[in-house]
Amino acid sequence: MINVVRSLIFYAGYFLAMLMIGILFLPIAPFLPLSGRYRLLNLYNYFLMVWFRIACGVRYDIQGQENLPSGPCVIQANHQCEWETVFLQVMKPPVCTVLKRELLRLPIFGWGLRLLRPISLDRSKPARAMKQVLTQGVERLGTGLSVLIFPEGTRVDPGIRKRYNKSGSVVACRAGVPVLPVAHNAGERWPGRHWVKRPGVLRVRIGKPIETAGRMPDEVLAEVEVWIEAQLQDISEVPRPTSR
Fold this sequence. Notes:
By secondary structure, the chain is an alpha/beta fold. Helix content is 43%, strand content 15%. β3, α4 (109-114) and β4 (119-121) form a beta-alpha-beta unit. The longest helix has 23 residues, at 2-24. Keywords: Acyltransferase, Membrane, Transferase, Transmembrane, Transmembrane helix.
């Protein structure tokens, strides 16, 4: 019962903060340069990080922040819930996220996303989506933005393993930038399919950048997957499958 009460309190603050962002910041954001938009709209993500910890009794154990590269990179992380989409925005801003187009239609939240130049995909047209990721991903990296691509392509519950997609590794190899692997167990604290949050330790591991110069995307992807899965074996409370 206590987790239900905590979750209700959390979502009250969640939606109130979103409303305040919509009223106070969204009218200003279009008139700012892209870097200014990130700084302004990221205030909501910083708030959610703190509010989730306070309201839901979650403790963060984040290791590897010294591995963050100074220049742009392709961030690849496992995808379990909404939390990591928030954290990865504040981990190494500014970052361009590859996401499904439907998110841009959400009131306030989607409007803010549009201002941050995401790569929005129509998942009903996979061939076109792949081409879009490769073209726009390299272009965003060339402007100094990092690119966030979830190699699983969609949310995957803790304890489930899904095939990794190589689009992020292809983008990194074409642009000549490193891949930054990230692993976490956020879905154990913030379930992707249920609104009730769970207290406990939320663990994040940030790996050393994986260089792509002179390497094939398949080779890079294999290294990313091996590293993420090894970390998940270590930090997850829900047992991991040994293979897909």
